[in-house]
Amino acid sequence: MPSTTDTIREVLNDVARLTADATTFGENDDLYQRGLTSHATVNVLMGIEDAFDIELPDTLLRRDTFSSIAALRDAVLSCGVEETA
Amino acid sequence: MVRMNSFDAPARMPRLAYVYHPLSFAPLSIRDAAAGVCELVWIVDTSDPDAASMQRLLRRLGTVIDANGRSVGEVASEVRTLGVDGVVSLHDADLVWTARLAEALDLPFHSVDTAVKLTDKHAQRSAFAAAGLIVPQFRVIPPDAEATEVTRAGTGFAYPAVLKPREGQSSRDTLPIASLQELEATVAELRSRQEPREEFILESFVPDPSSPLGGEGFAPFVSVESVVEHGRVTHAAISSRTPFRWPFRETGYCTPTAIEPDLQREILRVAGVAARALGITIGCLHTEIKLTDEGPVVIEVNGRPGGGMSEMLERATGGFSILRTALRLAVGDPVELDGPVPTDRIGYLLYVFPATDVEWIDTVDGLSDLSAVNGVDEIVLVRGPGQHIDWREGSEAHVFHMTGTVGDFDELRDLIASTTTLVHIHGHDGDEQSSPQLTETQD
Q: Considering B178, B204, B230, which residue would you say is the last residue of a domain?
């Protein structure tokens, strides 16, 4: 079973249209500096929700939530998803 | 499924029909600006795949009406059932359609005639000339113009000139023209890669001033953000512009401006005359003005806030949002702006480009170092390694942009210098796979 972080990296590679392979990014790397656009942010939102079968609350629908892999993991975990290593 | 979403708008909040376009403000920015102002009814043309992909999010932020394949009247009928209090579009290409929708709904927006003048450079310049504003000589080159017609349009013209699409933005395909021969060759080249063909405007180049009227280190060019409410024009801000990249690509804005106060007053006066010349009675405007020895010359008025201006102004003023203001105007919430909004800091938005001959980006190094510099709030990579870039796309084709605030203009100049001393952009021309030339950032 892939870890939470690995799943997030897979989603980023699938839908975020980043400029490099997300598996090479550090967890705190700024995704906007890696080519994440406002439009692609919505794709990431949908991809994350589908992958974890959650719906992020409106309070998390803000720019910061998508700024790094670590921020996305925090958002996913705050929705009650259990972390897998 | 774990459900934690709740979108419960207050029952008596005004309702705004927002004509959404994916190239304009982002949905979450609109949602934030609408908080406490209005409920959103999104009108989306799902024939655009980028707009269609947003539907799932937009439904969470309000009601969605699909305009795909429907007439204005059909959309208006559906909007009417929702008891909408206002209608707005903040995207140039949608202004005329939205004006028709507003007319059908009998809601305040630009009239159709004004919306045409806001998006058609020829109609706009004619209106300026009729209002007595300084207007460069201009001629239209129709899409079906044969070579002889292009020659006729360019004969006897006052060169140097500028060739630009009749309807376009961000300096796309905006080119300097030094002579009739260059005009003929340039139009032929543009036609060879255009399908369908576009209509172009040829206009005389507005000469640079003999002294740095824009301030040391800034272009002789400014932008004005204006607010029009019940026909009364007031101005929220003047922004200075950093020097353009060849040929006419915008490299950045900052507000407040470095311009001396008397000239600022004249700039605002001229911006007001331009707004009235177009018959604008409501909405937020972004007016571009060149500073010359003969006085400020209006280059164009846009019927919406400038791209990136809202966040920049919000940072500089400590909270004034031009986007929020546009939504408030649309639902009839009194704004009553009383002149330029006081600023705490200098807000800026900078675009950074590769060398002009770069067609493919290979590497972009140093963004982390740049982000650590004081005054940098955000850096967004737009064209990264492996991506194509073409200077003809205008200002949209930049490698990255950055925003933030600084305390004074010296700090801003240092920051601008850091974009080339700390960041190194390499790229090449030609085919995607080959890399025959590595090119540094500067031209």
A: B204
Residue B200's domain is classified under what CATH number? 3.30.1490.20
Q: What total number of domains does chain B contain?
A: 4
- A77 contact B CB<8A: no
Facing residues of B164 across strands?
B201
Query: Left (φ > 0), alpha (ψ -120 to 50) or beta: where does B83 sit?
Result: left
Tell me which chain A residues have a C-beta less than 8 angstroms from the C-beta of B57.
42, 45-46, 61
Report how far residue B75's alpha carbon sits from residue B61's, in angstroms, rounded to the nearest whole number: 19
Q: Are B153 and B140 in contact (CB under 8 A)?
A: yes
Domain assignment of residue B6, yes or no: no
Contact B301, B244 (CB under 8 A): no
| B104 within a domain of the structure (yes/no) | yes
Are residues B45 and B76 located together in one domain of the fold?
A: yes
CA A19 to chain B, closest CA, distance in angstroms equals 6
Question: Which of the 8 DSSP states describes residue B388?
Answer: B
Structural domain boundaries, residue B89: 15-109
Which among B419, B388, B394, B396 is positioned nearest to B249, based on CA atoms?
B394
Claim to verify: residue B245 and residue B326 sit in the same structural domain: yes
**B60 vs A63: CB contact, 8 Å cut-off?**
no
Quick check: A82 contacting B, CB < 8 Å?
no
Closest approach of B268 to chain A, Cα-based (Å)? 33
pLDDT in tens, chain B (443 residues): 444 445 555 557 999 999 999 989 999 999 999 999 999 999 999 999 999 989 999 999 999 999 999 999 999 999 999 999 999 999 999 999 999 999 999 999 999 999 999 999 889 999 999 999 999 999 999 988 888 999 999 999 999 999 988 776 667 778 999 999 999 999 988 888 766 778 899 999 999 999 999 998 899 999 999 999 999 999 999 999 999 988 888 899 999 998 999 999 999 999 999 999 999 999 999 999 999 999 999 999 999 999 888 899 999 999 999 999 999 999 999 999 998 999 999 999 999 999 988 999 999 999 999 999 999 999 999 998 989 998 888 888 899 999 999 999 999 999 999 999 999 999 999 876 554 444 444 43
Alpha-carbon distance B222 to B255, whole Å?
10
B10 lies in some domain: no
Residues B340 and B240 in one domain: yes
**Cβ–Cβ contact A84 with B under 8 A:** no
Of the candidates B2, B32, B56, the beta carbon closest to that of A54 is on B2
Residue B380's beta-bridge partner residues?
B401
CATH, residue A65: 1.10.1200.10
User: Where in the sequence is the domain holding A35, given as residue range(s)?
Assistant: 4-78
Residues of B in contact with A34 (CB under 8 A): 381, 384
Closest Cβ opposite residue B367 in set A33, A56, A63: A33
Pick from B204, B238, B257: which residue ends a domain?
A: B204
Q: Which residue from A65, B375, A43 is spatially nearest to A77, judged by alpha carbons?
A: A65
The total number of structural domains that make up chain A? 1
Q: How many CB pairs under 8 A join A and B?
A: 78
The reply to whether A50 touches chain B by the CB within 8 Å rule is no
Q: What's this model's pTM, rounded to 2 decimal places?
A: 0.89
> Quick check: is A85 in a domain?
no
Could you give the CA distance from residue B111 to residue B88 in angstroms, rounded to a whole number?
12
Residue B244 within any structural domain of the chain: yes
